[in-house]
Amino acid sequence: MHAKKSFGQHFLKDELIAERIADSLLQAAQTGCVLEVGPGMGMLTKYLLAHPEYETFAVEADRDMVEYLGKHFPDFAQKHLIPKDFLDFDAPAFFGERSFCLIGNYPYNISTQILFRLLDWRDQIPEMVGMFQKEVADRIVSPPGSRVYGITSVLAQAFFKTEYLFTVEPGSFNPPPKVVSAVIRLTRKENFTLGCDEKRFKTMVKTAFGQRRKMLRNTLKPFFDNDLLMSDPFFEKRPETLGWEEYVRLANKVKE
Question: Which pTM does this prediction carry?
Answer without folding.
Answer: 0.93
